[in-house]
Amino acid sequence: MSDQVGGSPVAIVIHGGAGTIARARMTDEMEANIRQVLKESVHAGHRVLTKGGSSTDAVAKAIRVMEDSPLFNAGKGSVFNADGKHEMDASIMEGQDLNAGSVAAVSRIKNPIDLALKVMTDSEHVMLMGAGAEEFARRQKFTMTDPGYFHTDFRWQQLQRIKARETAKQDQDDQWFSTVGAVALDRNGNLAAGTSTGGTSNKRWGRVGDSPIIGAGTYADNNSCAVSATGHGEFFIRYVVAYNICQRVELGMSLAKAADLVVNQILLDANGEGGVIAMDPKGNISMPFNSEGMYRASVNTAGEQSVSIYRDEADPGTTLTGNVDH
Amino acid sequence: MSDQVGGSPVAIVIHGGAGTIARARMTDEMEANIRQVLKESVHAGHRVLTKGGSSTDAVAKAIRVMEDSPLFNAGKGSVFNADGKHEMDASIMEGQDLNAGSVAAVSRIKNPIDLALKVMTDSEHVMLMGAGAEEFARRQKFTMTDPGYFHTDFRWQQLQRIKARETAKQDQDDQWFSTVGAVALDRNGNLAAGTSTGGTSNKRWGRVGDSPIIGAGTYADNNSCAVSATGHGEFFIRYVVAYNICQRVELGMSLAKAADLVVNQILLDANGEGGVIAMDPKGNISMPFNSEGMYRASVNTAGEQSVSIYRDEADPGTTLTGNVDH
Description:
The structure is a homodimer of 326-residue chains.
Chain A lengths: L10 E9 L8 H23 L4 H14 L19 E7 L5 E7 L5 H11 L4 E3 H10 L13 H12 L11 E2 L2 E6 L5 E7 L9 E2 L9 E3 L5 E6 L1 H6 L2 H10 L4 H15 L4 E6 L5 E2 L6 E7 L5 E6 L13 E2 L1
Parallel strand pairs in A: 3-4, 12-15
Antiparallel strand pairs in A: 1-5, 1-6, 1-13, 2-3, 2-7, 6-7, 9-10, 10-11, 11-12, 13-14
């Protein structure tokens, strides 16, 4: 993996969501499949970087792999809302110039991260939503995807279970926030971050979570760090999680300390479940979570890779440049 | 105005937008009318506070007065989007517990700030948008307002002018971002902030600005300050303006210095036009703007009031507790 030639060392970290999941509920096959897609995603993004591509392109590539997999709550595999439809959100930001793009509640875009990227590169705006965002997509020659593409039996059954138990507490496995995200550092020393999600199962009333909110779910600034978040979105909005970490880093705190403070102290005290992936301009990686697990994978500046789900899995690289801290 | 009995001293500051406006373009009558509504708004909010009401209620009350006036781009008087319709945004946050509510792109809600408040108090969510937000409103017994209510000839002519000049640069008077907002401190020492807007004239594609984004257009935390912003929304999102100021205050910077740094240095360097109103837990007020003017009014902790539009108008109270800094 360390076929880097010239320029700054590159690194990438991805997540496929965080939450409470008992190992007993996870089949070996499902776990193996998830680890496989995480690996494919992080490698695909890393390849973009080693070939000299931008961190923005690496982030979009890694996210696209997870959006195309039915195993994550983004793109194909997105959860159903209360009306049995899909409303997907995505955002992307680059650290060099703080350019950003975001879409909320799109229903017919195969890869929402691509549309967020297009909003960033080809509109004067940062955030577009709903039918308007899809009208923009049409003008930009995006193909409108048949809503049936996003149907997966797994998510449909999940919706039926939640509806059946509506008055009761949600099923435990629905406490998994399987938003996806990626953060990368490219050869030019530029950071980027992106996030994509189907939101929460059975969601109503045009609810918007943190994923499409620049500052909450996604932030990137070469002067501090890049962050993608996953968790109980309302808390991540109220605590402006991604930017909260970045500003602390900008004002002198280490990445590991800032990310840990926000996730394992501020959010934990508020009962805001979830986690983040974060990277600073040196390629140091941090991926704290206060939930039972977080799907995650990384390739650090030394080329060491990790693919993990549970809390007790050690990620490599903690003693090298390009630290991986929990 | 200083009929305060018991509890902490109270204070309130409001804005009715910022931008580039030449005095020559403003008729005496229009200017007098605007100043009159600013005065009514800030007094209405202040009365809530002196009667022992919460900062949240004071903020909502002050904003409601401006939403009900056709002179501001919020509620009645909102600009038209490219389709000749209205899509309004609002958000509110309270500093005691960081509760927040927000709505984006509602078309049939007379006072969007009331719906943002209802999202905060009566839903599990922070942000609702579009038709879904209006469905939530119906369930909460909000009356659906006829879209014709929001029609004003002034805004209709503005849209026609912009459309006619679409390929050219926008008319100068359309560079006024007349979002409204309020920030208050109540007898219990609690801060609150709120913002309401019709967005930008001729907007397309479901564009969302900073006003409904917690962290960008609105933020409140008793441990730092409360902020409501007005300006070129895309910049205010990318620089997470409201929270950017609050976190600096939390980490030790004075309110005046933090607000000035973000508005007159960070935003100005990025060509992000606009301003903010801000208040800390002691009732110190700051209202910096980097545009030619900002509609603004305040009543500080000493009961001194100000109503101003242009840069060269001095606001009172700079030497008293409850400073008013520009």
